[in-house]
Design brief:
The protein has about 200 residues and is an alpha/beta fold. It is built from 7 helices and 8 strands; from the N terminus they run E-E-H-E-E-H-E-H-E-H-E-H-E-H-H. It has a 4-stranded parallel sheet with strand order 3-6-7-8. It has a two-stranded antiparallel sheet with strand order 1-2. Strands 4-5 form a two-stranded antiparallel sheet.
Length: about 200
């Protein structure tokens, strides 16, 4: 660019060429999230000491299994067509990051910012064992009513989860389905909340 040359083969860029727009294909998604280095959040804690008062922010996964009309994941699914959008870190990777955060920043609470926290029972079982023994802090998650089974909520509770956030968008099933592309019944919402309350 400094020499005024065009770089037509660079993936993920768009540029104008003699009045036309050239849109290059995107790079593939990182399939194995464990290959990425742990997030470096040092600047936040160094420059803004108040960060220590808030729950530590972390994601155990990327992507979402749903295609809600208002969400970027609907666009990403089309952009990365044929690629696996939902990718989950190993329990070991998540625990490793939290151990560093606990030691370095003295965190006292954790907030998982996944679109939908990992819901496979095998992952949750391993997470619960490791989290209780190695981290032991209260945490919050975002979930989907379709995954709020008795077993999953019991595992999350025993791991230290004290808050589950569900996105409802509307109390109208018609609006949720026809406008938001979120297809679940109000009865399923009530059941999910009852399961949470029981646990």
């Amino acid at each position: 660019l400094a020499r005024g040359e065009k770089q037509p083969d660079v993936k993920g860029i768009c540029y104008r060429n003699e009045g036309s727009f050239i849109i290059n294909p995107v790079y593939p998604l990182v399939a194995d999230l464990d290959t990425l280095p742990l997030a470096d959040k040092e600047i936040y804690y160094e420059k803004v000491p108040a960060f220590r008062k808030y729950p530590y922010s972390i994601r155990a996964s990327r992507g979402c299994p749903y295609t809600c009309t208002y969400c970027c994941n609907d666009v990403l699914r089309r952009l990365y067509k044929g690629q696996r959008l939902v990718r989950t870190r190993s329990v070991d990777s998540v625990i490793s990051e939290l151990k560093v955060a606990k030691e370095r920043y003295g965190i006292t609470e954790v907030r998982f910012y996944d679109e939908v926290f990992p819901f496979k029972v095998e992952w949750l079982q391993e997470f619960k064992e490791r989290y209780v023994n190695e981290i032991g802090l209260p945490f919050q998650i975002t979930y989907h009513v379709k995954f709020a089974s008795e077993e999953q909520m019991r595992l999350l509770k025993s791991a230290g989860c004290y808050q589950v956030v569900f996105g409802m968008q509307s109390a109208s099933e018609r609006i949720r389905s026809e406008v938001c592309n979120r297809t679940y019944s109000n009865e399923e919402v009530v059941q999910a909340i009852e399961i949470c309350k029981r646990n």
